[in-house]
Design goal:
Structural class: alpha+beta
Shape: globular
Largest sheet: 4 strands, antiparallel
Radius of gyration: 17 Å
Oligomer: single chain
Order of helices and strands: HEEEEHHEE
Distance between the termini: 62 Å
Amino acid sequence: MTQDKLYGQIAIEENKLERFENRTQHRDYTIEFTCPEFTCICPRSGFPDFATIYINYIPDKWCVELKSLKLYINAFRDEKVFHEDVTNRILDELVELLNPRFMEIKADFNVRGNIHTVITANYKKEPEGTSGS
């Protein structure tokens, strides 16, 4: 007997990050999200890892659409990925989508094996007219 996928499973599988125009580009302001139900799978043990993901950014021209962010975050639940990698991947993919003025991703993983892991990765846009050389 084959079980059909539920609509939520399909939505998560088909997730695509979306953005919309920032209507207040003339000033810096901070957008903060807390995602307390993040889960992924340890690639070494296969055990689930649970975390709270904190997303903090100053938008430039774009803001992330919340439903797409929810589905994107939920898509990691069956993925085998290290804490460091998933934190930096979330940062890279959101920076690619939004090109914000600033962004920080903090992944606060639940204690496992008597170790509490917190990974923080950030991005800051270079001021216009400056070069890396």
